[in-house]
Amino acid sequence: MTDAADTTGHGRGRVRQLRLVVEAADFEAALTFYRDVLGMPEQESYSGDDGAEVRILDAGRATLELSNPAQVRFIDRVETDGGRSDRIRVALEVDDTAAVAGELVDAGAELEASARETPWRSVNARLRGPAGLQLTLFQELD
């Protein structure tokens, strides 16, 4: 058994990194959107045979949020105007949800729900980004 997370939320478990792997048919557009527009710095890159390409972008700290169906329905009521969460949704903490959402829409993302304050003291917006990813932008208020 591994050590549990301490009170700061930083665990000493076996997993050292959470990496979300996404197949992007329009690789260059997705790379431009997530790296250049959203501002996720390139950490590593690899090229292979037959034009194979991968870019690993730094997203800061990673967590895995597990929610039961009742919680997902509650989140959907709070964060959207009737929208539904994908089974897997990418949530990204930013400094200014409304501003970043606007920049991402200008860069081609589809706005699914405008920025709004939640009961848990954050400002959240929901978008559909390149490679079909459903994104929640959140800004902590406390």
UniProtKB/TrEMBL annotation:
Coiled-coil residues are none
Q: What's the domain of life for this entry?
A: Bacteria
Occurrences of domain VOC (ranges): 16-140
**Pfam families for the chain:** Glyoxalase_6
Q: InterPro entries of this UniProt entry?
A: Glyas_Bleomycin-R_OHBP_Dase (IPR029068), Glyoxalase_6 (IPR041581), VOC_core (IPR037523)
Database matches in SUPFAM superfamilies: Glyoxalase/Bleomycin resistance protein/Dihydroxybiphenyl dioxygenase
- This chain belongs to the protein called VOC domain-containing protein
Identify the species of origin.
Agromyces tropicus
